[in-house]
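If you are new to this repository, start here. Below is one unmodified record pulled from the training split, so you can see the exact layout before writing a loader.
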Amino acid sequence: MSDETILLGAVAYDAKVVTIWEGIRDHFNQNGAPMDFVLFSNYERQVELLLKGHIDVAWNTPLAHVRVQQQTDNRSISLGTRDSDQDFHSRVVVRNDSGIESIKDLEGKTLAVGSRDSTQARILPLHFLRAEGVELTKVNLLKFDTDVGKHGDTGTSEIDVLEAVADGRAQAGTVGDLIWVNEQSAGHVDANLIRSLWTTPPFDHCMFDVLPDLDAGKIERFKKALFGMTWDVPEHRRLLELEGLKVWMPPREDGYNSLRDALASPTP
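And here is the target side for that same chain:
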């Protein structure tokens, strides 16, 4: 492999990941940024090999992104994110017969939550609830640690949460806004049974990360090819749609502050 080749890491949370990165690789190769990719089964291994210098770029969840920053003393470099990764939200959904009219009413009830490494289905919703004065020690947490290592990418634990609320094992649950909207659109949520009670403050999601000693030429070629993808080009649009965005955005860090706070003072 040429030293000019940018080696990118991504986690294989779904079969479509192969199609996405093969298409993006072709786009990069055609636009002066030779690139290849490797797929990992979990983000912990991906972060480990990025830190060891075995890959050049990692497409990271917010949790993996913040961990890379922590383990490099904030010297890692953020390259870009999706428009859909900015101002993400989670929701607390409740059964209509639960008697829960405010988030404080969660105390004494059973709250279903997603995987322990899911930012949107567990880490941040619990963090925000505690910040709003909910005493989590008084909430019975029904935990679904599904697909741990994929940081909630599969959405499986969120589906488990919705099913638990629907069948009465829990009176409420926490899910990401994307899963909530998609499950409603698919007709999988009975509005007569379940409603959205509360939406969290916004936070940001995935990010491309590199180490500070990565060749500057690789960084510039990567950014030029990435931001050269446009919605107006049909082949680009196909890949952008598969990856769930309309435009790649420059990095910003403020959207991860709530996650940094949550990790510094973890909830149950």
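Two things worth knowing about this chain: The longest strand covers residues 6-11. The chain has two domains: 6-85+205-264, 90-199.
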